[in-house]
Amino acid sequence: MELYQLKYFLELVKTEHVSAAADFLNISQSALSKNITSLENELNLQLFDRTKNRLKLNHNGLIFAKYAEEALNTLTLGINTARSISYETLGMIRIYCYAYAPIITSCANAYSSLNPLIDFDISQSNMLINQNQSEDLDFILYSSSNNHPIVNKEQFWVSQPLFQENMVLIASENCKEFPCTIKKDAEFVDLAYFDNTPFVVMSQSDLFFSDITYSLCQKAGFIPRTFYQTDDFLTKISTIRHGLAVSLIPESCLSDALALCPGLRHYKLSEPGKSRTVYLMRHRKALMTEAAMDFWNFVLDYYHLPEDSSVD
Q1: Which residues have C-beta within 8 Å of that of residue 40, sequence separation ≥ 6?
Q2: DSSP code at position 251
Q3: Is residue 24 within 8 Å of residue 18, measured between CB atoms?
Q4: What is the pLDDT of residues 153-206, one digit of tens each?
């Protein structure tokens, strides 16, 4: 049994979907399936019940996941504690987030446990920053639905894709205008059925900050009815919780949405083009601080990305 197999297994436990887990782990679906099968063969246990489109964690998997997570956390703590003794890197790392900030805070938290001498300044906003402001930043987190990174040669920034993720539709149990033709326990939904359902959407669209709701609904054949616009995540979830509208959110936001609204219903989309790419933009290496460079190398490892050998 390999350590990475436990990581693969636990990520698959979260999503119960091979393609979503493989995208996050930055490996192929076949490689993920092969490693899970190998793990099950070694344990002589079936950990998932398999259907046509989905894996469902069974009783064996539920028990094993509990101990696998505890073991992995303990081992990670031991590794980080041992490594942190030799850390001498000091400084401040500033990250400006157009995309949902908790996407990167989990990585920053993991790095902080390894190197507590580094301070983080992570800010969330949809306001475009000027060149003078950007010079004080180390990284910019943003997303794009067209899978084309932003290139900014004048300000010497380089974009790195972290992962791809799908959008999901969320609604409360008491949503007043939820399509009656869709079963509550459905896994996938067709957006075409929501042509008369109000949506909560974001209020701004620009180079860094955009809402894929409009383009997905238009592909489904309608312009979405807007209940209102907000860029505040808490306000969006509160509106959904009261059954006043539905919304499309990225998978990376789903766990926080469920924490705020435990009874939330969520559905995968059957539409094409339902994914977005999350990017972390960094300065060119010659302009990066020692702390930023160290964190950058950690980011690549955290998101299972290849080593950055580029010269820029």
Answers
A1: 46, 47
A2: G
A3: no
A4: 555 788 899 998 889 999 998 888 999 888 877 888 999 999 999 999 887 655
Whether 146 has a pLDDT exceeding 70, the answer reads: no
SS3 assignment, position 115? coil
Residues 6 or more apart whose CB falls under 8 angstroms from that of 256 comprise 102, 233
Residue 150 near residue 279 (C-beta atoms within 8 A): yes
Cα separation, 50 vs 52, whole angstroms: 7
Please compute Rg for the chain using Cα positions.
21
Q: Which residues have CB under 8 Å from 133's CB, separation 6+? A: none
Q: How does the average pLDDT of the chain come out, rounded?
A: 84
Q: What tokens were used for 250? A: 């990225």
pLDDT digits (tens, 9 = 90+) for 231-271: 888 999 999 999 999 999 998 888 899 988 888 899 999 87
- Give the predicted TM-score (pTM) of the model: 0.70
Alpha helices in 85-173 (DSSP H): 102-114, 131-134
Locus of tokens 């459905």: 186
Residue 48 pairs with which residues in a beta bridge? 57
Average pLDDT estimate for 105-118: 87
Cβ atoms of residues 88 and 117 within 8 Å: yes
Q: Which two tokens stand for residue 52?
A: 């046509």
Distance CA 15, CA 11 (A): 7
- How far is it, in rounded angstroms, from Cα 256 to Cα 241? 13
- The whole-angstrom separation of Cα 177 and Cα 189 is 15
- Supply φ then ψ for residue 17, to 5 degrees: -145, 120
Amino acid, single-letter form, for residue 70: E
Asked if the model's pLDDT at residue 147 lies above 70, the reply is: no
In angstroms, the CA 72 to CA 150 distance is 36
Residue 198: closest CA among 215, 218, 223, 181: 223
**270 SS3 class:** coil
